[in-house]
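Re: How this chain folds, sequence and tokenised backbone to follow
Notation: Tokens come from a learned vocabulary of local backbone shapes, not from coordinates.
Start of record: The labelled sequence and token lines come straight after this line.
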Amino acid sequence: MPILAIDTSAAIACSVVDDSGSPLAHRVIPGRRQHAELLTPLIAELLGEATIGVKDLTAIAVGTGPAPYTGLRVGIVAARVMGMALDIPVWGVPSLDAMAYEAVIRGGLTEGSEILVVADARRKEVYWARYAALLAATTRMVPVAPGGTVIPGRIPCPRVIAGPAVGSAAEVAAMLDGAAVPDGSAVLDGDAVDGGAAADGGAAAGDAAAGAGDAAAVGGITVVGAGAALYADVWGTHSASDQPFTPLTPDPSLLATIAIRRNAGGVDQPSEPLYLRRPDIDPGVARVVPATGTSQ
């Protein structure tokens, strides 16, 4: 049951995984340019490395952001087009969810910990979502690293407390103290969680899409993601050495594993993009050429 996973919310990241989410092939191209030119050749390269034919794919998982318009759109459109051509499902997973799960599982965070995932939104802003770590009961063998597993039992999993949203780093940091937990917050795991049933599906980690990054702490909340390093003066004094692992970008293998478990739990996974704000240039508005008065 090979599955293709794509995330273009930050880097250009793709994985081919088996039906447990374990990666068969994995590649990340850093940077936020040339998504359209590089994505299709990258997918073909990964399928060849995994010795998987495109018609052997059974589903596609795609990161839905939040992220800037252009790069995010490339990955989602590619996933939808391939899904339609192959007549296979396309599962959307918020990219920040994958980073929260990776921080919990691979960063050694315990029950009661809180995580703030902050991605670079440009314009001196961050895309953010806040999560709490719970202990979930599971009967599954969960891959957490190449060659490693968590034995069935109780594993940490993140629960969405607030977000996703976009704002300045200073505004987000100011909201953290005393922020209320909204009703209906979702648990990112398909297994039972202490205190009630899970409202969402989820997973543990595959390969890391990027190396260890900077982490900070604000009022006991671990801050991870590219925004943690960009605005380190806002989040606090904890450095990367204080955290065993903090993701900088979403791991596409983890996106796939989350999507697999959510699908098994019957969770709807729309592939609608989370832009959260309008693009700098509206592609639907005609541009008037001053010299002629005509539009293009």
About this structure: The radius of gyration is 19 Å.
